[in-house]
Amino acid sequence: MVSTVLSATMDGLKVEFVRVEADVSNGLPLLHMVGYLSAEVKDAGERVRTAIGNTGIRIPPKRIIINLSPATVKKRGASFDLPIAAAILTALGVIGEDALKDILLIGELNLEGKVLKVPGILPIVMEAQKKGCQTCMIPSENEMEGQVVQGINIIGVKHLQDVLDYVSHPAEFQKQHRGIHRAVRIKYGKEKQLDFCDIQGQEMLKRAVEVAVAGQHNLLLVGTPGSSKTMIAKRVPSILPPLTEEERIEISKIYSIMGLLKEDEPLVSTRPFRELHHTVTKTALVGGGMIPRPGEISLAHCGVLMMDELAEYPKNVLEVLRQPLEEHEIQIVRVRGAYVFPAEFFLVAAMNPCPCGYYPDMEKCRCTKSEVDHYLGKISQPFLSRIDICVEAPRVAYQDLKEQKTCDSSAAIRERVCAARNIQKARYQGKAFTTNSRIPESDIQTFCRLDEEGEKMMKLAYEKMNLTARTYYKVLRVARTIADLEGKTQIRCIHLSEALSYREMNHKYWES
Amino acid sequence: MEFEYWFAAVQNVSDQKKILLKNEIPSAREIYYIEEKEFHRFSFLTDAEISSILKSKEAWNLGVKLQELKKQKIRLVLFDSEEYPEKLKTIYHPPYALYVKGNLPSKDVPSIAIVGARKCTPYGEKCAMEFASSLSKCGAEIISGLASGIDGMSQRAAVNEDARTFAVLGSGVDVCYPRNHIGLYMDILEHEGGIISEQLPGTKPFGWNFPMRNRIISGLSDAVLVIEAKEKSGSLITADLAMDQGKEVYVLPGPVTSAYSQGCNRLIKQGAGILLTPEELMEDLKISSQISLRDFTKNRDEKEIRLERTEKLVYSCLDFHSKNIDTLAKEANIPALAVMNHLISLELKGLVKEISKNNYVKI
Predict the structure, then answer these.
(1) What is this model's ipTM?
(2) Is the domain B309-362 a CATH 1.20.1270.60 member?
C-alpha cells in the first residue's frame, strides 16, 4: 500500500514542497530510501525505524520503500524524519489513510521518538499558508515560530506518540495542547542596549554617525587606536529606527533558515548587528555552499554590518562586497540556478590611518610613507567610493573624559533620525527607494537640487578637490540627508560643506 | 665609444685607478687589446684587478651593449671628456663615468641641492617646495635624489616652475626608484632636466649605493640645503660631504622637540647656515632675484583673500603641522561643525589642505 505525506525543504531562500511516499510490500525485509537524498537524509531510515520501534509499534518484516519527490530537488537536513515516520505508519495502516491529508509535517526524530526542532519553520509555514495548506505539524519547540503566521492551524508535537494521539482524536488533542496563545507580543528593548550617552566627547563623530544612520549612508571611521571607534559602532543599533512588521518577517525568515531564531522570540525584534572578524571568508560573508546559504551580509539585512580593522581584511573579501553594496542583494549562481539573497545592510567600518595607527601625528607615527600608502592602498578606490561618509575618530582629550557633560542619549538621536527618515519616506512615495543613500543618479537632480550659491560651491569643489562623478553624487546625497535632519527642504551651502568634509579619504601620496 | 663603455663598465676597479690607467693609456681601445703581461707595468693595479679587467671582456659584447645604451638614449660622460662637470672633478673620489639621460647641469647657472628625509612633516614638505620654487624662479637649478619626501617634493616644485632640475640616482639611470615617482622622472626629462647616475644602467637600487651617490649630489651643486633630517639621516652624509668639498650648507631650523629636525638643528650648532626666507638665501648665494618672493613666514596677503571673522580665526589656528577638527574647535572655541564648514571653504579657497581624514594643514 502506498501512502503520501506532505513536507517541505529550503532551497536557498525558496521553499520547495516535498511529497514523502512510503510503500510497504512483501519481499525481503528492508528499508530503502530514494529521491536525490543527501547523506543526512539517508541516515533518517535507521533513525525513523528505531524511533517507531521505541514508540511501541512493531514494524513487520516487509519491504519498505521511501520516495521523496520531486526527485530533481536535492533533499538535505534532518527535517524529513517526522514525515517519513508518518508515511511509514500510514502505509502500515497504523494511521488512517486520510488522517494526514492536507497536513504538512516537518521535524527531526531522535531514537526515543522525540521530535526535535529544525530550522526554516517560519518560511515553510508561510509558504504552506499561501499554498492553501490547512494544518502544519511541527516540533513543539518551533511552535511559537509557526504561530506567527496567521490563517493556518499549527500543531506542535513533542513525541511521535503525539502524532498518533492527534490522528485518533484531533479535537481533543488540540484542546489539551492549547498552551500557547496566538498573540506574539512585540518585545522591544528587552535587552539593555548600549547608549550613546556613555561616550564622552567625540561630538563630531557622533554627528557623522547620526547623519549616516538618518540617510542610511555607509560609514567609515578612521582613527588612532583607542579612540572609541568600536564603542561608537556598537551603539549604532540603538539609534536605528524601529523595525517595521514586514522587515521583521523578512529578517526572521532568514534567521529561521539559519536556525538562529530564539525559541521565546519567534520574530526578530531588534535590528541585526553583525560584527565580523577579519578572518571571515568570502563564502561566509556573502553566502554560498553547494546549496547556497545566506552569509553574514544577509544576516545583517535591515541591520548593521560592522567591519572593524577594515585594512586587515583580505582584498578579495572586500571586493566581493562591492556588488551587494551597490545592488543591496547578492546573487549566487550555481549550476542548478541562481539564488538571490537580500543584503540591504548598513555598513559601519573602522580602520587605523596607518599600520601603527598614529599617522598624521609625525612625532608618534613610526611608519614610512610607503607603508602608509600600502596600508591605505589595501582598500581599493572602488570599494571606498561606495562608502558615503568617512570621518576621523580623534584621540579623546582628558578633559572630555573627566567632564561629565550631558550629551544626547540614543533615544534623542533616534528621534531625530526617525524624523529625517519620515521626511524621506514621504518624499520618495511611489519610488523604489526610501532613503537618501539609495537615490539613483537619474533622480539626483530632482531631489538634491542646490541653490545658486550651492551650485557655485559645488562647481569649485568639484575642480579643487578632484571629485569624481561618483563622489559628486555621493556628496549631494549626504547633503540631502543633512538638510533633512534640519527639516529644511532646500540644501544650503552649510549642508553641502558638511557633506564635503565627509567625503572619502584621498590617497594624497599617489604623486604624479 | 664601445670600448669606452666597456672600460667604464669594468667592475672591481675603482674610479681613481681607472682615471690613472686612462692617464697612461688615453684610449680604451688600446686597453682592450693590450696583453696581460703589459698590465703589470702599472704598479697601481693589483693582480685581482688585472684579472677582472681581462675577465670583463668575455661577457661583454661591445657592439650590442653600445646599441642598448643608444636605444635607451643614455649618454656616457667620461672623466676625461669635455662635457664632464668641472665641479665634480675637484671632489674626493670623482666618478670615472656618468650615465646621463637628458642634460647635465649648466656651468654658468648656480645649482643648488635640496635634500632631506624621505619621511617628512607637512612643514618640511611645504618649506622644501617653497625654497625650490623660489630658487627655480630665480634661475637656479635644483639637484636632488628623486627620493620620496623632501627630494621629490623639491624637484616637483621645480618642474612646476618649468625649470630644469637634475636627479642623481643610486640605481641605474633607467631604473626609477621609488617606482611611483615615474611621473616626476618623465617630467624632469620633459623640462630639459636630467637623470644622472654613476651606476651601470639596469642596476637595482641597492642600499649601499646611496651614500655614494650623495657625493655626486653635493659635488654637482654650489650649495646644499638640508630641509629635514633625523639624527641619523642620509641627508647628513650629503651635508658632511658638501662641507668637505667646501660647499655652502644651509639648514632649515625646526622645533627642538621634533625628531624630524634633530639632525638639522645639530648641523646649525656645528655652524651651518640657517634658512630663513628665500630672499635672504638668494642674497647669500648672490643670486639676483628680479621677482619679489613671497615671505611665507607671514600669512597669505589677507587683503587679497577676504576671510570672514571666524574663518580667519580658524585659519590662524592652523599650522604647517596637521591639526584635526576637534583640536581646532577647542583652540578656536567654536563648535566642531562650524570649524568643518570653515575648513571646507578655506580648502576651496586654496588656503588649507586635508592631509589625512579631517586633519588639515596650512598651505
Answers:
(1) 0.74
(2) no
